Amino acid sequence: MSEIVVIRLGSQARDPIPWLVWDPAGDEVIASGVLPGAAHLNQLHERAGGRPLHVLVSAADLAFRQVTVPGRLTRQSLKALPYLLEEELASDVDALHLVLLEQQGQQVDLVAVENKRMDSWLAWLTETGLQARSLLPDVLCLPWQDDRWSAVPLEGQWLIRRSASAGMVVEPDWLDPLLVRIDPTPRIASYGPVPDGAPGEWQAEPPVLAMQLLAAGVLGNRANLLTGAHRRQPEWARLWQPWRKVAIAAGVCLLVVLANLGSERWQLAQQEQALKVQIDGVYRQLFPADKRLIDPRSQLKQHLAVLEGAAGQQGLLQMLQQLHPVLAKLPDLRPLTLRYDGKQQELRMQMSAAGFDSFERFRAQVADTFEVKPAELRSEGNRVTGTLILRSKS
Q1: Dihedrals phi, psi of 192, to nearest 5 degrees
Q2: Where would I find the GspL periplasmic domain in this sequence (predicted)?
Q3: Where do the H-state alpha helices sit in the chain?
Q4: Residue 329 contacts by C-beta under 8 Å, 6 or more apart in sequence?
């Protein structure tokens, strides 16, 4: 789609707003009209139909100036431009929005507009859901030739372009007094009816719809006022705006949660470090002979295993010392194998005797000291063998 929508905003919200849907490829007007004021801009939604919107603003609210910049044009000298206009403009220079139009050596052409006026124009558009692709001085969209001015009547006013970077809006009653004071007398290309008796050398151009003439000067125009603080927002930024506060609140909540988690993790790390120091201290108190401490848990297990083995050996020796007198009284009873379970503190004895009564006498004599589990006895030839399980009662 190559068509564009062009509108012209006035100084006040009640001023009429001419609009035009134009096809630059075929230089064809698709539709045109005039809205009663800014409150009716929402009627352009259907007309715009997704086409790019270019907004013209009245040069009556703009000040075109040429200033001489001392030295080279740098960022610092650009910042000083407003103060070069202090004596020429009645407005506070800090409240002005400046746009650089042309530069030739130390000569700089610029346009100035009050920030509050820019805010009003953009607010009219935003309130009706419109977004401008560009915001251009209306007079700088008129045709330009080096040897003559350009002029066209629009909404009861004359729009005049007098140089590549300057122009003006003139009420019909003020046109003659203005032109009389111009020396030399200007040559003016008029794209509307030439006013009777107007000073200057007027040249009638083929008549054309004023908004169509201005629309032809929109594309490629470098006088866009949407710069700096008034720079046009990309589409995603406009859609993002309603969700901005929600996203900020969600971001703050996320930061609080992450901060709490980080604090808890730091506290746990500090507690873990303190516990490790305590474990190391206890270990060194228990085993001062160990010079190297690499893994306290593993090294402690090794020590416990040694202690358990020592405890088991001590238990076995104690049981054998208690059994020795009994076995001495029963020479017929001979132990074949011994197996000691340190965890259960049990002694499993496989023994051989001449008869069953030897096993009974053994059980009777150790009954005060040991618990003896019944075991199966079997006769093999002239001997009886069996296994007894003993557990100390103490």
Answers
A1: -145, -175
A2: 238-393
A3: 44-48, 75-84, 115-127, 172-180, 210-216, 235-240, 244-286, 296-329, 356-366
A4: 365
Q: Within 10 Å of residue 99's Cβ, how many Cβ atoms?
A: 20
How far from 301 is each of 295, 298, 388, CA to CA, in Å? 10, 5, 33
CA quadruple 253, 259, 261, 263: dihedral, nearest 10: -150
Using CA atoms, how far apart are residues 352 and 338, in angstroms rounded to an integer?
13
Task: For residues 114 and 109, give the distance between their C-alpha atoms in angstroms, rounded to a whole number.
Answer: 17
* Per-block mean pLDDT, blocks of 10 residues, the chain (394 long): 90 95 91 94 84 95 86 68 68 82 85 93 92 95 94 95 95 92 91 91 92 93 91 58 74 86 86 78 64 73 59 70 84 84 82 86 88 80 86 81
The type of residue at 276 is K
Please state, in angstroms and rounded to a whole number, the distance separating the CA atoms of residues 13 and 8: 12
What is the distance between the alpha carbons of residues 228 and 260, in angstroms, rounded to a whole number? 40
| Burial track 251-284 (b if 16+ CB lie within 10 A, e otherwise) | eeeeeeeeeeeeeeeeeeeeeeeeeeeeeeeebe
The residue type of 201 is: E
Quick one: 158 exposed, middle or buried, by C-beta within 10 A (0-12, 13-18, 19+)? buried
**Residues whose CB is less than 8 angstroms from the CB of residue 158 and which lie 6 or more positions away in sequence, other chains included:** 151, 152, 169, 170, 171, 172, 175
- What is the DSSP secondary-structure string of 107-166? EEEEEEEEHHHHHHHHHHHHHTT---SEEEEGGGGS--BTTBEEEEEETTEEEEEEETTE
User: How many CB atoms are located within 10 Å of the residue 216 CB?
Assistant: 16
Q: Kindly tell me the sign of the dihedral angle through the C-alpha atoms of 249, 252, 256, 258.
A: positive
**Rounded CA gap, 391 and 385, in Å?**
20
